[in-house]
Amino acid sequence: MSDLEKLVRRRMQEEYAKGASAEEIAKVVRDLLNGVDLSGNRFDAIAMRATTDNE
């Protein structure tokens, strides 16, 4: 499983644990994926920012 898949899965589980609806979880995942730049090696920094932005 890639780091991106792990990140998405973890965020989905966190939102589900908060009692978020399917629509809210989809929005969080969509926002997360829209913020990821896969063109370079900056994924780790972007992933870290994405996980801390919603906390």
Notable traits:
3 helices; single chain; 55 residues
What do these coordinates show?
The protein has 55 residues and is mainly α. It has helices spanning 3-17, 22-34, 43-53. The termini are far apart. The mean pLDDT is 78.
SSE string, helices as H and strands as E? HHH
Instruction: Summarize the biggest pleated sheet.
Output: none
**What shape does the CA trace take?**
flat
Q: How many helical stretches?
A: 3
Point out poorly predicted stretches: none
Helix-residue proportion: over 70%
Mean pLDDT: 78
Could you say which structural class the secondary elements and strand pairing correspond to?
A: mainly alpha
What proportion of the residues form beta strands (DSSP E)?
Answer: under 5%
What is the radius of gyration computed over CA atoms, rounded to a whole number of angstroms? 11 Å
Distance between the termini: 24 Å
Number of strands: 0
Topology of helices and strands:
Elements: H1 3-17, H2 22-34, H3 43-53
Helix pairs in contact: 1-2
Brief account:
The chain is mainly alpha-helical and 55 residues long. 71% of the residues lie in helices and 0% in strands.
